[in-house]
Amino acid sequence: MINKKTNIFIILLLLLSFTVFGCSKPVKDGENPEQPVEEVKKPLAGGELVLPITQFDTLNPILNKNESIFYFNQLVYDGLVFLDSKLEAQPALATGWTATENGDGWTFQLRENVSWHDGQPFTAEDVKFTIDALRTSNGNVEKSIFSGFVKNIKNITVLGSHKIFIETNSAIGNQIENFQFPIIPKHKYGSPEDVFKSPKDLLVGTGRYKVEAYTKPNYVRLKSNDKYWDTSAFVPTVIGKIVPDPETALSSVEANEASVGKATDFDWEKYGEDKTLKTYAYTDWDYEFIGFNFNRAITADKSIRTAIAYGIDRHQIVNDVYFGHATITDTPIHPDSWLNDASAQKYGKEQERAKKLLADANWRDENKDGILENELNQKLSLTLLVNNDNPRRVEVADMVVTQLKEIGIEVIAEKVNWEEYQYRLNSGGFDMVLGGWKMSVNPDISFIFHSSYMGNSNFIGYSNPQLDQQLMEAALAKSAEDRKQKYRDVQNTILEEIPYYSLFFENNALVVKDYVKGNIDPKPYNIYNNIEQWYVLEEKE
């Protein structure tokens, strides 16, 4: 069963509610958010950035569950890998890696001459210690948001001071992207269990910035790490300004008390009215879809699913409900990902095509009431399950009802509370479901469609041996070229079969003071992406 309280950062869960306001320009298929064009001016040497962080329980990256600290900690700690702008894993504390022949393990070569912020050397023992600590949480995301990333790890062997072998239980879920969790120093703890037994703020990392001062409850001051293994940041000082909540964080940017803030709703274009602010949009992890129950004959019928795919106008939904701030997609692969097949077929509103599909399947409107019937005089009527604590999703459901009626399908939106929603998902009490997943850095989507997940996260009851095989082959792929091809095969099967009708990924935005310049390019995994390339102007405008 999906836990409503489960952490939202890395693991996968059905999305809950927001309230949205504002307006925007229309969205196009697969269109990524546009960024403002920067005018290059003279940087300010010795400047500082003020980043708002909401009240938190701990700065320890393993124990933290606060979203703002999750992003902030990426300035202080490194993983074995990091994700580039195409969501592809690149070397960080690991300089290279090779997979075993059967895909059930990785050998990592680690970066040499790296020091912890307290001067101690970084070694393979630190990597083993971090993984061992995470494994003590037994996959419980209530203990650590990174627990799920190591639950498939079977054994760890240190092969030298800067070489390590990590054996996994299976190839499924064994993606290299999993290894971007932060590495913590072994010498700061007695044992892996101590990380959870004696929770405390951990202020020593290997990252681009190191903690200079921490004054509760006001701020955390970072300074540039002059011994960092990669490019040093231009701005030498970062202040983490502690504020009560995300709304206050954003208002502190408006009040010129902070440099950067994450938008809290979909009305961020209003900040364009303030000449001292700029917004930088990005495609987030939040993926919305309509799922079909394959245990019911009507929705197991491919002609019905295909007609629905051509009967829904996603552009209208995005523009009217999300105010243009969503990126339309046909699969659950993130639009930014190097694995996303941009050439794949796109569904769109083609009502005449939808009507022909239904007519070819012998659905007719014999009584002229606007709803189609089959040869047994049974109406083409479907239920659409939606959780009523998400007003935006309820609005989408109402639009789907209206749009599908135009092609002769009666849809009854069943708006239920969260507990009933979960129960109906688990018991199969729906024809269609309007839902969402918080996708992760791991592109493996086996949890959605693989038959081994039926009765769990594959709550639509979908079973396809061909797709099962393709998902396995994608997990086992060795080279980048082979992996991309395998994921292309996966996407083509999803497009052909339509087990989900993908709607879109929601967009979000970073609101930035105009005196902050440089390569500002927020990503869902790191809103401070490229911070080392940011700078502040000599004269604040």
UniProtKB/TrEMBL annotation:
GO CC aspect terms: ATP-binding cassette (ABC) transporter complex; periplasmic space
Signal peptide region: none
Single Gene Ontology BP annotation: peptide transport
GO molecular function: peptide transmembrane transporter activity
InterPro entries per UniProt: Peptide/Ni-bd, SBP_5, SBP_5_dom
Cross-referenced CDD domains: PBP2_thermophilic_Hb8_like
Keyword list, A-Z: Signal, Transport
Similarity annotation: Belongs to the bacterial solute-binding protein 5 family.
Protein name: Peptide/nickel transport system substrate-binding protein
Species for this entry: Anaerosolibacter carboniphilus
